[in-house]
Amino acid sequence: MGTVLLFGSLARGDTATPGDIDLIAIDDGLGDYGRRAELQQRAQAVSGHAVDVMVTDAPEWATRTTGVPCSMEALIAKDAVTLAGPLRIRPEVRPGAI
């Protein structure tokens, strides 16, 4: 997996009590989209919270965030926080978000 981003209310710091955790996993290549359930289970086990995991690849992410400004990916990128990997959106979670 190339990059993992946190997005949604937790990344924006909109919630006092975290509900679910929204993640997007951006694979360096085409990747195995079938790993979504495995990634979700692992993230839930580590965090102790419900986790929603979206899986995409780097070329699709780049196309949809730069070429389609109204796409879900472009909206996610506005508030996303990089948790792991080389793609840096914002280096840290907003104060009080976690």
If strands are numbered along the chain, what order do they take across the biggest sheet?
A: 3-2-1-4
Helix segment tally? 4
* H-E string: EHEHEHHE
Largest sheet: 4 strands, mixed
Instruction: Let me know the number of strands.
Output: 4
Supply the helix-strand structural class: alpha+beta
DSSP strand content: 15-25%
What this model shows, in words?
This protein is α+β, with helices and mostly antiparallel strands. Helices cover 34% and strands 23% of the residues. The chain is built from four helices and four strands. Strands 3-2-1-4 form a four-stranded mixed beta sheet, with helices on both faces. α3 (58-66) packs across α4. The radius of gyration is 13 Å and the shape is globular. The two termini are 24 Å apart. The model is unreliable at 91-98 (pLDDT under 50).
Task: Please give a quick description of this structure.
34% of the residues lie in helices and 23% in strands. By secondary structure, it is α+β, with helices and mostly antiparallel strands. Helix 3 packs across helix 4 (72-79).
Topology:
Layout (H helix, E strand, L loop, with lengths): L2 E5 L1 H4 L8 E7 L8 H12 L3 E7 H9 L5 H8 L1 E4 L14
List the main descriptive attributes of the protein structure presented here.
98 residues, alpha+beta, four-stranded mixed sheet, 4 strands, globular
